[in-house]
Amino acid sequence: MPSESSTDAANMAEIPTEQMAQVVEAIGGPLVYKKIPVPKPGPDEVLVHILYSGVCHTDLHAMLGDWPIPPALPLVGGHEGAGVVVALGDLVTSLSVGDPVGVQWLHSSCLACEHCLAGDEPLCARGPDLSGYTVSGSFQQYCLAKASHAARIPSGCREDMDAVAPVLCAGVTVYKALKESGARPGHWVVVAGAGGGLGALACQYARAMGLRVVGIDTGADKEKMVRGMGAEFVDFAAAGGEEGLVARVKKLTPGGLGAHAALVLAAREEPFRQATQYVRARGVVVCVGLPPDNAQFAAPVFDTVTRMIQIRGSYVGNRLDTAEALEFYSRGLIEVPFKTVGLSELQSVYDLLKAGKVTGRYVLDTSR
């Protein structure tokens, strides 16, 4: 059972007063790697010692101010934090010191509006708080989390916290998108952006769910990784333009009819439009990636109507989606492709993201 009050001196005794963090002080950066105070949990919060944090393209968007919602400044980014609870707020009874937990994109929601009551906490009508965007996230050694929204990491995953970190956003996001697609075992699903952090996990979750997968990306390294996960591969740079890309995808599906669904994870506009062309009649295009600059894409009305194409958005998963996505990992069905670097090296990871040279996921070790 948790202690009656773990914000007291006994529980905070071994917790330092200062910590290292990566801080964005102005839109556009640069990152500042410096010491900041270690926060103390409020009544409904827990303090998490972050061991590892995945790096998401969203974190880069936040620093650059790419989206209509302004991030809070100064900003500590990060929302794929895996660690252990080291202190509890006075009202917390659902967690104990030492529990392995995750800090995710959804920091908190009201839990009382119609969306929250229906299990759509990310759509909270009162506006959810977002880790690493509207509140400080996991690019620091100690991070606050709401006890109600902290992800419960299975105890059997304690030795794999570095691999678990990307599941907390990338894994949950693509797992939710696959559920939204309505694809059933045996159906064909295209993953556009298959070689990135989300795409690498999307291919695996899709295979674990009994789906056939076509991955779209470019480069020999990404092709090797995607094919190694049991998926077909189409290199968009070698496809001969949009028409050639669509033809290649369709050719891989039975009868050349096209895919039953497409998950578009790209950070550019073009793949969204292309997806409406290579899905079959009654196909579903699930929009997941968030390109900057208020990107839009157009689909021909006649074709969309007569082929009964569905276009839908999929945001991050809810708390149940998180538990299910983590269970896939704990059962050994998902292998996370990642590279580990120190927290101090975050800027170099951002540079690779900007250049489109990230295969899989980068994970930050907060101890260095």
From TrEMBL:
EC main group: oxidoreductase
Any Gene Ontology CC annotation: cytoplasm
Highest taxon, organism lineage: Eukaryota
EC number: 1.1.1.1
Necessary cofactors: Zn(2+)
Single GO MF descriptor: zinc ion binding
Pathway assignment: Secondary metabolite biosynthesis
Keywords noted in UniProt: Metal-binding, NAD, Oxidoreductase, Zinc
CDD domains in the record: CAD3
Domain Enoyl reductase (ER) residue range list: 28-364
SMART domains assigned to the protein according to its UniProt record, in alphabetical order: PKS_ER
The family this protein is said to belong to: Belongs to the zinc-containing alcohol dehydrogenase family.
Name of this protein: alcohol dehydrogenase
Biological classification of the source: Eukaryota, Fungi, Dikarya, Ascomycota, Pezizomycotina
